[in-house]
Specification:
The chain has about 350 residues and is an alpha/beta fold. About 20% of the residues lie in helices and about 30% in strands. The strands form 6 sheets. A 10-stranded mixed sheet has the order 9-11-14-17-20-22-26-27-24-25, with no helix packed on it. Strands 1, 2, 3, 4 and 5 form a 5-stranded antiparallel sheet that branches. About 40% of the residues are buried. Bound molecules: coenzyme A. Coenzyme A binds next to strand 26.
């Protein structure tokens, strides 16, 4: 029998709204494939079934039993964390993902987003179906997460006390850095990386860069453009200022795209098809999946005309719009793209 059976586990601090509903959860140490001894202890103490997903709000009686059970099965680190969490004023919860079904609660959704941003799960490896319907639209403020139903009251309350209540964003997703800053990254503007982004070591996100949830970089990477949900960027690739990777959440895009290793997408360029390793897209050129591309050989002779999506597996190509004819063409690259190592090796 394997030592692990569950997908994920987290002890979390939850924020509730005025109806007592959980609206967001912070998991300081989420776990992927938790040890069987840990999940057995949790399931025994909380009376849970195997193979299902659970979110349990801990009262003081259960937490004491759980601390003891965790210590008895050599899960001291989790027991210590639990003791720290219950010492505070916030609601403490346990979330156990027995299987990878669509997230059915805020607690489950936040645990999956944490697993991604802690680099414990890769983009597109977790079931996030129906995520938007589960998440709550929240005012993210300097005084924490506030459900919009409570916002007018909280704004008045703050003013009456002579305090300011600053709203940084109104969104279903918070910024990643309020939950975790993975090692070896630089993020010039933290609001531009959502919780659920996966940033590999050596990734730099400049002010123009944006990374959605369930998307990210293998690292190292220079990101000055947009990484849409579902898009993964290979190591040593460079997304130039204002460039775009086409998403599938809105606007009808259906091809799930990716960027290979050692690629350069030029400033204000974009792709709507999976780009193979070592390719360059000329600045300002947007190549969609259906764009007809003239494939040239090394001597500039036309081989054939194909749709860009048929070139998804072809490495080391330069895509450009011929400035004389207006046609999009691609040709073998003589040199490979290289990141400026000074910008990444000191993150
Ligand atoms: C496409 C790109 C990579 C080409 O750069 P390059 O390989 O250095 O090529 P060059 O500009 O030296 O051009 C080589 C030749 O192709 C020609 N050429 C370049 N782009 C062309 C185009 N779109 N149409 C027709 N001819 C073109 C040049 O005139 C030159 O001709 P020559 O041999 O007669 O002198 C570059 O223009 C580009 O877009 N880089 C992206 C940089 C970027 O955006 N970085 C991110 C910063 S935030």
């Amino acid at each position: 029998m394997s030592d692990t059976a569950s997908l994920g586990f987290g002890l979390g601090l939850a924020t509730t709204n005025s109806n007592g509903e959980i609206i967001e959860v912070f998991y300081p140490q989420p776990e992927i494939s938790p040890a069987r001894s840990l999940t057995d202890a949790v399931m025994n103490v909380c009376g849970l079934e195997t193979g299902s997903n659970h979110c349990v709000e801990l009262d003081s009686e259960v937490h004491q039993q759980l601390v003891q059970a965790l210590r008895e099965c050599d899960q001291a680190a989790t027991a210590d964390l639990l003791e720290r969490l219950v010492a505070g004023p916030q609601l403490v919860i346990i979330c156990l993902l027995g299987r990878d079904s669509p997230p059915a609660s805020v607690a489950e959704a936040y645990l999956k987003l944490h697993l991604l941003s802690h680099r414990l799960a890769k983009p597109n490896s977790l079931n996030l179906e129906g995520l938007f319907a589960v998440l709550v639209n929240i005012a993210w403020t300097n005084r924490g997460a506030i459900d919009l139903i409570d916002l007018p009251g909280r704004q008045l309350e703050a003013r009456l006390q002579g305090l300011s209540l600053e709203i940084m964003s109104v969104d279903k997703f918070p910024r990643m850095t309020s939950y975790v800053v993975p090692a070896g990254v630089r993020i010039a503007h933290t609001a531009r990386v959502r919780l659920g982004a996966y940033l590999g070591e050596g990734t730099t996100i400049m002010h123009e860069g944006f990374v959605n949830f369930n998307a990210g970089t293998e690292g190292p990477a220079m990101i000055e453009g947009r990484i849409s949900a579902g898009v993964m960027v290979g190591a040593n690739s460079d997304l130039g200022g204002g460039c775009s990777t086409m998403g599938t959440l809105s606007g009808g895009g259906k091809e799930l795209i990716s960027v290979g290793r050692n690629c350069l997408i030029g400033a204000n360029a974009g792709i709507g098809f999976p780009l193979a390793d070592g390719c360059i897209i000329e600045a300002g050129l947007y190549v969609t999946a259906g764009t007809k591309v003239r494939l040239l050989d090394a001597n500039g002779e036309l081989q054939k005309t194909v749709k860009a999506k048929e070139l998804g597996g072809r490495k080391n190509l330069l895509y450009r719009r011929n400035s004389l004819s207006g046609a999009v063409e691609c040709m073998p690259l003589k040199t490979t793209n290289a990141l400026n190592q000074d910008l990444h090796s000191h993150n």
